[in-house]
Amino acid sequence: MWGWALYDWANSAFATVVLAGFFPLLFHDFWNIGLSGAESNLRLGWINAVAGLGIALLAPVLGAVADRAGAKKRFLVVFMVLGVLATALLSSAPGGAWVPAASLYICAMIGFAGANVFYDALLLAVAPPERWHFVSGLGFAMGYLGGGLLYLGCVLAALNPQAFGFADATAAATTAFLATALWWGVFSIPLILFVREPARAARARRRVWARGFAQLVETIRHLRTFRVVGIFLIAYWLYIDAVGTVIRMAVAYGRSLGFAQSELIVALLITQFVGFPAAILFGWLGQRIGPRRGIYLGLLVYVGVCLWGALIREPWEFFSIAVLVGLVQGGVQALSRSFYARLIPADAAGEFFGFYNLMGKFAVLIGPPLFGLFGVWFGNPRYSMLALILLLVAGGVLLARVHESEAPARALR
Length: 413
Prior knowledge:
It contains 16 helices and no strands.
């Protein structure tokens, strides 16, 4: 369990330092020298779309193949190595070279997200069903702490480069990619050493790609049979879109209200470190009151965050909202993962978690555009926060129709 959870500690450094932190800043100021902010944003948007679409198309197929071959762990390691190498090479991309930087970023994103498909699916192998909620929460908690610690170190180095032996802030920021790659690779070792995947029959190892594609087609064709799984995936798509939009748009929203960059960095750090104990607490809470009630508690807090966020005036309010988000963000993600694990056939976990991650990747289609449109339609960015309440409520209503008693048999075949 600890070996599995430590992988979240390892790869969350990429999510925090690279995705949310330094790559967007350097892409604007270092790799797109002389380009306007609007044009740079457009390039970054297309890059993220290409990376997201790539993994969205690959995830279900790879999951099905890994199920057939009993190779979730091996596939995880392959994608992890891809992500680690691409992240390390980002540190050497020269100024103005936005195409090489973008290409490496796409490879790193595919490595990160692809490995997560198999990491999520391995939850079923590392703990008995009655422990899934706790162990899932433990993974997210370790991720918040690990990612937050490395991000804090990288921020301190970028703000005080000479004190850390760097020529300037740019040198410190590019070195952050190398530090992230080393962190990711080293802390993946416990999973490689200690996590054991149940062996598959020898016959399942033959023609795994053909069999994997066939299994995927069969599951898509019969997905209506697994009605409860489909309802959950749609509910998850809606409410996790709102959760993700809060994460993606918080900095832009804060800047539009006039908050300083330093205040926004502090808020991100608050969310990371509050999220560590909170995710563990939610894992325990899921075992006591059930995952659905735990998810509802988190969504209710998010509704409150959206209402308060539309009214904030002072920095202390932004920090308070960061605390609230940290309290429930990891909990909603962790309980959603463990609840889903209880709905799917155990011997097709990789494939079904491929669909789960697919919905997560497609969860950028509604929230961010709706967030922006509400601000334009009503002439004030504060109204953007209210748009997310629609997604939270819609997801919550559908979640009420998910009943574990209707889950499919624990084996498809």
